[in-house]
């Protein structure tokens, strides 16, 4: 498992200040950033014309360093400045650029546009002149590159401050990833993301990018119960629970049981269906984890099943309909830290209302919900994040947009409970599941079904072993 730091703008400034205090000058950091970006651009700039847009601050200073480094490599470069450089370091970079700088009123056609107008400190929309300069020049170039972040994006939230920004082909994250590299709506604009290292030390951070997991394979003497036993509590709509069960069977658990009176032609032969009393299923001492929610319904019977899961004290994953029925009182009978909640955007709003949480962004809502409930929260969407009490937020590289299909959330829930039953702590189980879910989708390509996604899960798991 790899965890790469994901920083807020404040954390990034603190890391840079620590480096400066330790003896690295701001000029050296600027040189490192600019030359690192230039090296990346050189890989695809052969024979092409590059235009660099420079703003007034140190992001603009990066642009001058990029332009000079490319010029020395024989690349055709033009620089367009929004205004004069306004910081000493940016002014020094401008002075070291040994060529002409064009005004913001210039129309420059080229092949590659490099956006160095504003960086992670921006907190207001681009003014009309800056926005017009960016949009006009983006339309005149085939490839658009953002240095650190696109100008007009809020680093901590991913908010787009202007109504329209270009779509970028590359984004170079300077020093470390930032929240906006993985949060919507900015994430949809960024194209290929490349981190340009600056040799900084980060210490404790508020976020991590979760990479390929390293699950432990079964021991040589393993049996079905030692690999983990799962119960999936069914309800009104059998298909959702069956999908979750199929995913759980292919994500590592040794024994998956569907609890409920389920007669359905899609039930596979290797899935155990137990129509007996739910209390007896949940009372099995060999049972390691429970999933409730997919296809559950929201009637009194469904609520009674949910309460039984809480009373059982078993580690549980709560998804779909269960998230609409949960109340704060239910947690009074349960060990919160062993549970996972898997809400999409609408369900996250429902949970926040139920628990009296008033926050503006998805990240803030997920973090506060985790703190309030004591649960791990996998907040699903195009920018899925995983939050846990007193732990950094976990971010993920963007997954396939083809996951926007009915039943894929049921599959994810099945993978989470499977990884929990296999012995992973809730935070690791949820994080591994999100990664495996995305990897299975990547392997499948376009236009797959939820059933195909569930069946692909073992191949995704194989890439980690």
From TrEMBL:
<dbReference type="InterPro" id="IPR017953">
    <property type="entry name" value="Carbohydrate_kinase_pred_CS"/>
</dbReference>
<keyword id="KW-0479">Metal-binding</keyword>
<dbReference type="InterPro" id="IPR029056">
    <property type="entry name" value="Ribokinase-like"/>
</dbReference>
<comment type="similarity">
    <text>Belongs to the NnrE/AIBP family.</text>
</comment>
<keyword id="KW-0520">NAD</keyword>
<feature type="binding site">
    <location>
        <begin position="119"/>
        <end position="125"/>
    </location>
    <ligand>
        <name>(6S)-NADPHX</name>
    </ligand>
</feature>
<keyword id="KW-0067">ATP-binding</keyword>
<feature type="binding site">
    <location>
        <position position="148"/>
    </location>
    <ligand>
        <name>(6S)-NADPHX</name>
    </ligand>
</feature>
<dbReference type="InterPro" id="IPR004443">
    <property type="entry name" value="YjeF_N_dom"/>
</dbReference>
<feature type="binding site">
    <location>
        <position position="410"/>
    </location>
    <ligand>
        <name>(6S)-NADPHX</name>
    </ligand>
</feature>
<dbReference type="GO" id="GO:0046496">
    <property type="term" value="P:nicotinamide nucleotide metabolic process"/>
</dbReference>
<feature type="binding site">
    <location>
        <position position="409"/>
    </location>
    <ligand>
        <name>AMP</name>
    </ligand>
</feature>
<dbReference type="InterPro" id="IPR000631">
    <property type="entry name" value="CARKD"/>
</dbReference>
<feature type="binding site">
    <location>
        <position position="59"/>
    </location>
    <ligand>
        <name>K(+)</name>
    </ligand>
</feature>
<comment type="function">
    <text>Bifunctional enzyme that catalyzes the epimerization of the S- and R-forms of NAD(P)HX and the dehydration of the S-form of NAD(P)HX at the expense of ADP, which is converted to AMP. This allows the repair of both epimers of NAD(P)HX, a damaged form of NAD(P)H that is a result of enzymatic or heat-dependent hydration.</text>
</comment>
<comment type="function">
    <text>Catalyzes the dehydration of the S-form of NAD(P)HX at the expense of ADP, which is converted to AMP. Together with NAD(P)HX epimerase, which catalyzes the epimerization of the S- and R-forms, the enzyme allows the repair of both epimers of NAD(P)HX, a damaged form of NAD(P)H that is a result of enzymatic or heat-dependent hydration.</text>
</comment>
<comment type="subunit">
    <text>Homotetramer.</text>
</comment>
<keyword id="KW-0413">Isomerase</keyword>
<feature type="domain" description="YjeF N-terminal">
    <location>
        <begin position="12"/>
        <end position="206"/>
    </location>
</feature>
<dbReference type="GO" id="GO:0110051">
    <property type="term" value="P:metabolite repair"/>
</dbReference>
<feature type="binding site">
    <location>
        <position position="151"/>
    </location>
    <ligand>
        <name>K(+)</name>
    </ligand>
</feature>
<feature type="binding site">
    <location>
        <position position="240"/>
    </location>
    <ligand>
        <name>(6S)-NADPHX</name>
    </ligand>
</feature>
<dbReference type="Pfam" id="PF01256">
    <property type="entry name" value="Carb_kinase"/>
</dbReference>
<keyword id="KW-0511">Multifunctional enzyme</keyword>
<feature type="binding site">
    <location>
        <position position="115"/>
    </location>
    <ligand>
        <name>K(+)</name>
    </ligand>
</feature>
<feature type="binding site">
    <location>
        <begin position="58"/>
        <end position="62"/>
    </location>
    <ligand>
        <name>(6S)-NADPHX</name>
    </ligand>
</feature>
<feature type="binding site">
    <location>
        <position position="344"/>
    </location>
    <ligand>
        <name>(6S)-NADPHX</name>
    </ligand>
</feature>
<keyword id="KW-0456">Lyase</keyword>
<keyword id="KW-0630">Potassium</keyword>
<keyword id="KW-0547">Nucleotide-binding</keyword>
<dbReference type="InterPro" id="IPR036652">
    <property type="entry name" value="YjeF_N_dom_sf"/>
</dbReference>
<protein>
    <recommendedName>
        <fullName>Bifunctional NAD(P)H-hydrate repair enzyme</fullName>
        <ecNumber>4.2.1.136</ecNumber>
        <ecNumber>5.1.99.6</ecNumber>
    </recommendedName>
</protein>
<feature type="binding site">
    <location>
        <begin position="380"/>
        <end position="384"/>
    </location>
    <ligand>
        <name>AMP</name>
    </ligand>
</feature>
<dbReference type="GO" id="GO:0052855">
    <property type="term" value="F:ADP-dependent NAD(P)H-hydrate dehydratase activity"/>
</dbReference>
<keyword id="KW-0521">NADP</keyword>
<feature type="domain" description="YjeF C-terminal">
    <location>
        <begin position="207"/>
        <end position="464"/>
    </location>
</feature>
<dbReference type="GO" id="GO:0005524">
    <property type="term" value="F:ATP binding"/>
</dbReference>
<feature type="binding site">
    <location>
        <position position="295"/>
    </location>
    <ligand>
        <name>(6S)-NADPHX</name>
    </ligand>
</feature>
<dbReference type="GO" id="GO:0046872">
    <property type="term" value="F:metal ion binding"/>
</dbReference>
<dbReference type="GO" id="GO:0052856">
    <property type="term" value="F:NAD(P)HX epimerase activity"/>
</dbReference>
<dbReference type="InterPro" id="IPR030677">
    <property type="entry name" value="Nnr"/>
</dbReference>
<comment type="similarity">
    <text>Belongs to the NnrD/CARKD family.</text>
</comment>
